[in-house]
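Lab meeting, action items carried over

1. Structure of the two-component assembly. Owner: GW. Status: complete.
Input record:
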Amino acid sequence: VSLGYAGIFFYVLAAMAVVSALMVVTRKNPVHAAMFLVFTFFCVAGIYITLSAEFLAAVQVLVYAGGIVVLFLFVIMLVPLKAGIRRPPVRRGAVAILLAGMVAVAVMSFYAHAVSTEMSMATEGSRVMGNIETVGTELYTRYLLPFEVASVLLLVAMIGAVVLARRQV
Amino acid sequence: MIVPIHHVLTFSLALFLVGVVGVLSRRNGIIVLMSVELMLNAANINFIAFSRLMSDIAGQVFAVFVIVTAAGEVAVGLAIIISLFRGTESINVDEITLLKG
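Predicted assembly:
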């Protein structure tokens, strides 16, 4: 099977994303974890592009790498570092969990392979246009009500965050 | 699809499990929230991979909604961490026992 540039791009990005995600969960210093989190989000955005979801890649960079990580860094700045690393950061069962996870990856990838061989027969040669126009049309016609509900959700989250982080509760 | 779907699914599963390990093994509340973000990203990759495979744009629309929910969740979660730190001077999730759990 010849992969082409997009295929190689996918595997390189996937490897980098998993490695930097592992760095996120193993670093003691939360600032380092946040930096690796940015890197993971950029790799995932690249993977969205290889799956022809360009709009989602842009949203990923803007919302995750631009918004959420800045929020994390602000909270890390507000909370003193030693509050988080007073005791050893990793619990003793972590290695066991990791081993169980590796076994789970092996088993699940076997099942994923079985599912994919069935499904790729049905949808051979079709292609989704992952551009902004298609996503926008769907979002403002068929999914208009969920879209409006999502805006209410964001409003509630904003008010909730302000109320929770107030000085006098 | 340029890449076989089971490779994409295996990758997203690996990312999800890294997130699970983070949630279960870390004490720092901020890093627990970061691990939850990794898990949500893995779910999004599945949505987009199947959207591509089935030529249905709905998967990408749902991925947008997942991102919206993740943004709200982080805002509220970090606000809770700040208010917990005010009360207990700690963000270690196993030191916080306000609900006697």
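2. GW to write a short summary for the group page. Key points so far: The two ends of chain A are 61 Å apart (CA to CA). Chain A is about 80% helix and 0% strand.
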